[in-house]
Amino acid sequence: MEYLTGNLLKLRAPEPEDLDILYQWENDTSLWESGDTFAPFSRYILHEYLKTAKEDIYRAKQLRLMISRKSDAETVGMIDFTDFDPQNRRSNVGILIFPDFRQKGYAQEALKLMINYGFRKLHLHQLYAYINENNSVSIKLFSGCGFKHTATLQDWINKYENNYENVIVMQLISENNQLR
Prior knowledge:
Layout (H helix, E strand, L loop, with lengths): L8 E4 L6 H8 L2 H4 L10 H10 L4 H4 L2 E7 L5 E11 L4 E8 L8 H16 L4 E7 L3 H9 L3 E13 L2 E11 L7
Helix pairs in contact: 1-3
Protein backbone atom coordinates (compact mmCIF):
# COMPACT_ATOMS: atom_id res chain seq x y z
CA MET A 1 0.00 0.00 0.00
CA GLU A 2 1.26 3.47 -0.89
CA TYR A 3 0.77 5.64 2.19
CA LEU A 4 2.08 8.97 0.99
CA THR A 5 0.63 9.35 -2.51
CA GLY A 6 -2.89 10.49 -3.32
CA ASN A 7 -4.79 11.53 -6.42
CA LEU A 8 -3.30 15.03 -6.58
CA LEU A 9 -0.37 14.97 -4.19
CA LYS A 10 2.66 13.18 -2.93
CA LEU A 11 4.15 13.68 0.54
CA ARG A 12 7.94 13.48 0.50
CA ALA A 13 10.94 14.03 2.73
CA PRO A 14 12.55 17.47 2.66
CA GLU A 15 15.53 17.77 0.30
CA PRO A 16 18.45 20.22 0.27
CA GLU A 17 16.78 21.83 -2.75
CA ASP A 18 13.90 22.86 -0.46
CA LEU A 19 16.10 25.36 1.40
CA ASP A 20 14.88 28.40 -0.53
CA ILE A 21 11.20 27.56 -0.16
CA LEU A 22 11.59 26.73 3.55
CA TYR A 23 13.43 30.02 4.05
CA GLN A 24 10.60 31.89 2.31
CA TRP A 25 7.80 30.16 4.23
CA GLU A 26 9.42 30.10 7.67
CA ASN A 27 10.17 33.83 7.43
CA ASP A 28 6.81 34.96 6.08
CA THR A 29 5.43 36.76 9.14
CA SER A 30 1.86 36.54 7.82
CA LEU A 31 2.07 32.76 8.30
CA TRP A 32 3.35 32.96 11.89
CA GLU A 33 -0.12 33.68 13.27
CA SER A 34 -1.25 30.10 12.62
CA GLY A 35 1.78 28.50 14.24
CA ASP A 36 4.10 29.09 17.12
CA THR A 37 6.88 30.92 15.30
CA PHE A 38 7.93 34.25 16.81
CA ALA A 39 11.28 34.90 15.16
CA PRO A 40 12.82 34.44 11.71
CA PHE A 41 14.97 31.44 10.80
CA SER A 42 18.37 31.89 9.21
CA ARG A 43 19.42 30.00 6.09
CA TYR A 44 22.10 28.35 8.22
CA ILE A 45 19.56 27.01 10.76
CA LEU A 46 17.35 25.68 7.97
CA HIS A 47 20.36 24.18 6.17
CA GLU A 48 21.33 22.36 9.38
CA TYR A 49 17.73 21.21 9.84
CA LEU A 50 17.72 19.72 6.34
CA LYS A 51 20.92 17.83 7.16
CA THR A 52 19.29 16.23 10.21
CA ALA A 53 15.75 15.83 8.80
CA LYS A 54 16.59 12.27 7.81
CA GLU A 55 16.40 11.14 11.45
CA ASP A 56 13.86 8.45 12.24
CA ILE A 57 10.58 9.70 13.75
CA TYR A 58 11.19 7.51 16.81
CA ARG A 59 14.47 9.30 17.50
CA ALA A 60 13.56 12.84 16.40
CA LYS A 61 9.99 12.70 17.80
CA GLN A 62 8.87 14.59 14.72
CA LEU A 63 8.41 14.12 11.00
CA ARG A 64 8.09 16.94 8.49
CA LEU A 65 7.04 16.15 4.94
CA MET A 66 6.82 18.40 1.92
CA ILE A 67 3.54 18.41 0.00
CA SER A 68 4.12 18.25 -3.76
CA ARG A 69 1.73 18.04 -6.67
CA LYS A 70 1.94 14.79 -8.57
CA SER A 71 1.39 16.53 -11.92
CA ASP A 72 4.50 18.73 -11.89
CA ALA A 73 6.21 18.03 -8.51
CA GLU A 74 5.73 21.65 -7.44
CA THR A 75 5.87 22.00 -3.66
CA VAL A 76 2.64 23.49 -2.32
CA GLY A 77 3.04 23.08 1.43
CA MET A 78 4.31 21.16 4.43
CA ILE A 79 2.72 18.76 6.88
CA ASP A 80 4.22 17.36 10.04
CA PHE A 81 3.92 15.19 13.08
CA THR A 82 5.38 16.83 16.18
CA ASP A 83 5.44 15.75 19.81
CA PHE A 84 5.38 12.17 18.55
CA ASP A 85 4.76 9.90 21.54
CA PRO A 86 5.24 6.21 20.68
CA GLN A 87 4.47 5.08 24.24
CA ASN A 88 0.98 6.56 24.14
CA ARG A 89 0.72 6.17 20.36
CA ARG A 90 -0.18 9.78 19.59
CA SER A 91 1.14 12.79 17.73
CA ASN A 92 0.34 16.41 17.06
CA VAL A 93 -0.31 17.13 13.38
CA GLY A 94 0.15 20.46 11.63
CA ILE A 95 -0.20 21.60 8.05
CA LEU A 96 0.68 24.61 5.93
CA ILE A 97 -0.51 25.15 2.39
CA PHE A 98 1.20 28.21 0.95
CA PRO A 99 -1.39 30.91 0.14
CA ASP A 100 -0.96 30.68 -3.65
CA PHE A 101 -2.10 27.03 -3.53
CA ARG A 102 -5.09 27.20 -1.20
CA GLN A 103 -8.70 26.34 -2.09
CA LYS A 104 -7.65 23.52 -4.43
CA GLY A 105 -8.30 20.51 -2.16
CA TYR A 106 -4.60 20.05 -1.35
CA ALA A 107 -4.93 20.49 2.42
CA GLN A 108 -7.67 17.89 2.75
CA GLU A 109 -5.86 15.31 0.63
CA ALA A 110 -2.54 15.89 2.43
CA LEU A 111 -4.18 15.63 5.86
CA LYS A 112 -5.98 12.41 4.88
CA LEU A 113 -2.69 10.95 3.63
CA MET A 114 -1.00 11.85 6.92
CA ILE A 115 -3.88 10.37 8.94
CA ASN A 116 -3.64 7.17 6.93
CA TYR A 117 0.13 7.04 7.41
CA GLY A 118 -0.16 7.71 11.13
CA PHE A 119 -2.84 5.11 11.80
CA ARG A 120 -1.87 2.37 9.36
CA LYS A 121 1.92 2.60 9.20
CA LEU A 122 2.89 4.09 12.58
CA HIS A 123 -0.05 2.39 14.37
CA LEU A 124 -0.96 5.55 16.25
CA HIS A 125 -4.02 5.57 18.46
CA GLN A 126 -4.73 9.26 18.09
CA LEU A 127 -3.81 12.48 16.35
CA TYR A 128 -4.46 15.93 17.73
CA ALA A 129 -4.12 19.54 16.65
CA TYR A 130 -4.07 22.88 18.43
CA ILE A 131 -5.95 25.46 16.37
CA ASN A 132 -6.54 29.13 17.04
CA GLU A 133 -10.23 29.52 17.86
CA ASN A 134 -10.59 32.17 15.13
CA ASN A 135 -9.05 29.98 12.39
CA SER A 136 -12.32 28.78 10.86
CA VAL A 137 -10.59 27.44 7.73
CA SER A 138 -8.40 25.06 9.75
CA ILE A 139 -11.26 24.06 12.01
CA LYS A 140 -13.35 23.18 8.94
CA LEU A 141 -10.43 21.23 7.41
CA PHE A 142 -9.80 19.13 10.52
CA SER A 143 -13.52 18.62 11.19
CA GLY A 144 -13.97 17.48 7.60
CA CYS A 145 -11.29 14.84 8.19
CA GLY A 146 -13.02 13.47 11.28
CA PHE A 147 -11.33 15.45 14.07
CA LYS A 148 -13.54 16.45 17.00
CA HIS A 149 -13.29 19.61 19.12
CA THR A 150 -12.51 18.18 22.57
CA ALA A 151 -11.24 21.15 24.59
CA THR A 152 -10.77 24.89 24.60
CA LEU A 153 -7.60 26.32 26.09
CA GLN A 154 -8.48 29.75 27.44
CA ASP A 155 -6.11 32.68 26.79
CA TRP A 156 -3.58 30.22 25.35
CA ILE A 157 -1.80 32.49 22.86
CA ASN A 158 -0.53 35.98 23.65
CA LYS A 159 -0.89 37.59 20.22
CA TYR A 160 0.46 41.00 21.22
CA GLU A 161 0.45 43.37 24.17
CA ASN A 162 -1.46 40.98 26.44
CA ASN A 163 -4.16 40.34 23.86
CA TYR A 164 -4.79 36.65 24.45
CA GLU A 165 -6.68 34.26 22.22
CA ASN A 166 -8.19 30.86 22.84
CA VAL A 167 -6.99 27.69 21.16
CA ILE A 168 -9.09 24.63 20.58
CA VAL A 169 -7.85 21.06 20.78
CA MET A 170 -9.10 18.77 18.05
CA GLN A 171 -8.58 15.00 18.26
CA LEU A 172 -9.01 12.05 15.97
CA ILE A 173 -9.06 8.67 17.69
CA SER A 174 -8.26 5.62 15.57
CA GLU A 175 -10.92 2.96 15.34
CA ASN A 176 -8.98 -0.24 14.62
CA ASN A 177 -6.35 1.89 12.86
CA GLN A 178 -8.62 2.52 9.89
CA LEU A 179 -8.94 5.79 8.03
CA ARG A 180 -12.29 7.43 8.52
